[in-house]
Amino acid sequence: MKYRTLSYPLSHQSPVHKELLKPSIKPNSQISDGKKYKSYLIQVENHSGTHVDAPAHILPEGKKIADYHPDELIFTDPLILECPKEDNEFITREDIEKVDLDGVDCLFFRTGFGRYRELDTERYLTQNPGVSPELVSFIRKNHPSIRCLGTDTISISSYQKADLGIQAHLNAFQDSWGEALLLVEDLNLEDVDRVAEILVIPWQLESVDSAPCTVLARLE
Question: In the predicted model, is pLDDT for residue 136 greater than 90?
Answer without folding.
Answer: yes
